[in-house]
Amino acid sequence: MGVSGSGKSTIGTRLAERLGAVYADGDDLHPQANVQKMSAGIPLTDADRAPWLRLCAQWLAEQQDEGIPAVLACSALKRSYRDLLREAAPGLAVVYLDGSPELLASRLSNRPGHFFNPRLLDSQLADLEKPGDDESAIVIPITLTPDEIIDQAMAALSRA
Fold this sequence. Notes:
Blueprint: H1 8-19, E1 22-25, H2 32-39, H3 46-66, E2 70-73, H4 79-88, E3 95-98, H5 101-109, H6 121-127, E4 138-141, H7 146-159
Helix pairs in contact: 1-7, 3-4
Enzyme class: transferase
Pathway: Carbohydrate acid metabolism
EC number: 2.7.1.12
């Protein structure tokens, strides 16, 4: 989890490979209306995100029901969003990719071809509720290299 530009897709893909898990990118589950809003620089509301989060939760539940290890890259900005995902997939481990607004903005400015409008970063940061201590999230700074992030995530997951 994390805001746009935190590296969810890159890390999620590589983490799934290391875990021997299936992977889904939450971006691919967004309804077209959400993609159009974000492309136009219009922040999503909780109502906009609700159908998308239900699809994310459904995907996780289906994998868990089939006994398939899974990794989902999903912003999961608010605790209520993560609670919905945990309800669908009990035992869900959350890896939070944490970065400064400056670093995130720099990454977004160098990411051509993605539908997310970089002007939306501030709205995502405003909506972001960092995981609380009681959520047992694995918090990893995005200043590390992808390999270091994967290594830290794997070590934390093996302890969980």
